[in-house]
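hiii, so i know i said id send this last week but things got crazy w the move. better late than never?? heres the sequnce for the chain we talked about at the cafe, plus the structure i predicted for it. fair warning i was half asleep when i ran it
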Amino acid sequence: MRSSLRAEVFRSTIFGMSLATLLAAVLLVSTSCGSAPVSNAPVSSPPSIPVQQAVTITSIDPNPISASNLPQLITINGSNFVPNSNVSYSAQGQSPAIQPLNSQSSEQITLFAVFPISGQTGSLQVSTPTSTSNSVNLSVVQSNTTQNITDYPFPNAPFCNISPCPPNTIDPWDFYFRECTSYVAWRMNRDTGRRMQPWDQSDPGTFWNNMSAGHWGNAGNWDANAKILGYVVDYVPAVGAIAQWNFADKPSNHVAYVEKVNSDGSVDVSDYNWGLPPLDHLPQYHTGFAPRYIHINDHSASAFNISVNSNNETFTQGQSASFLVNVQSMNGNSGQISFHALNLPPGYASTTGWSSDTANLSSNGAISSTLFIGTTSLTQTGSFTVTLRVTSGNVSSDYSVTIQILPVQSSQAFGTQVDTTSNVISLGQSASFTVTVQSIGGFSSPVDLFAINLPPGYDPATYWSQPTLTPLPNGVVNSTLYIYTNSGTSTGVFPITLRTASTGFVTRDIPVNLTINSSGATDFGISVNTTSQTIAQGQSATFVVTVQSTGGFSSPVDLFAINLPPGYDPATYWSQPIVTPFPNGSATSTLTVVTTSGTSKGTFTIILRAASTGFVTKEVNVTLIIQ
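okay and structure toks below
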């Protein structure tokens, strides 16, 4: 936050003895109680209180300091620093954010602070309960290193400032122009010699949003996607690495490119779109510290790759689950590997552990270890995301898996499905989604239905045919959501959550999409015949996608399947990879997912994507369970 015409002060308190402790020592000498007997014992002298020597600052390093939006390490040298000291800095217009002290001794204090505004000089002081130091000027200057930013090829491209984003704001790598993600994608491609258009997304070396069947998406998702794709994510900076802040680190999250690693461990980074207007969507350069680094093209990239035989397991209290973790040496790396499991469910059994806590990985070799998660009747039930961490030296890689622990006292449950995951309508029209509730294990309790994130301005006539359902034991029951629109309803693509809830049972959500076009607008929508399939290894599953024309749409639509299960058979195919519906008609294509005995088991979320040049890309998520 900027301040205008007054001095701003930041403070940080060093841990240790407080002033109240010293005052208490004085009060103990003079306190008495009138009813206490008089003692003839010799009177002892009151305890002496040490005299605090004057606090002095001799130097500050660095000084001057470069303006940066990243935390920077500051060292204050001097004498007579004591516990419970405060560090303060004041300057016109500068409101630096100071973080907790890093370390402290009688002659040196180190701390992290953020100085976002250049061209100012303020005064820094250290104060103790009995003394205040001399003031030392600390100047904030503009960084002069910007040469690596200027070759971003789209400095004047239109950026997205409305929702949904117009198609002309999407860059060649499926990010948005002049966002931090677009800039880092350019640097990743530039580092591997891919400087000129057209950038070929089919080239395995091209960095783009959905490379290797992953999805980078928002900057806050980059660390999770990197781990899924097998890239190293750690706390070790390296030139060419990606500095990353997720949602917990910075509310707007961020990625940047590491230009230089400094001797104190800080980094110089270049980026786009860190600042607030009018500095948004512009190149910047910062010096400081980042919470984590993603290694793709730098020298420490891909020390090893990890894979897991399953992404999720569901079992009952008292039972156990296992995850086989495979580690493959990359680029000839070798060394001792250690296995860790983080965020295990509360009350897990003492039998929980790895088949091997450590193992030696040979150059270009492979090792494995199995995590066994045991439970008892006291283990907490619910859904838990467990982090499987593999480390070697200061390099680590994480893989997240999900376990669902059901109560032992009941095998009853219910399942849900919807007749279609996508509808396309024009203003004034209505759409419907029919939800089926299936009883499992004799379940026969009331189930409440909700529709979350309906489009703004939807017509009040919108309703469920039955807002509460009670299936017969092992039976099914349906309810239809009717969504009505009028001239005041917003247009666009809206993700809606259809929620089913029953007291004492796991709540289930079904994501669907509703596309609302202006009256007569040309567009297309997609739907799928089923949102879930369960097969055994070696079997095949099919998903039929329907492309619906509205407003006379009749252009080619490309179909893609993203995040197919590891080890799927190359015979997997679309019956028609490109479809062209007749105006106001529809066209279908069937995705056949073929598996073998080597295909991974587990539950996989596959993205079915439909894209047509000049129109908003449409996606439908489906689930494939391989047993």
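btw The radius of gyration is 31 Å. thought thatd interest u
miss u guys!!
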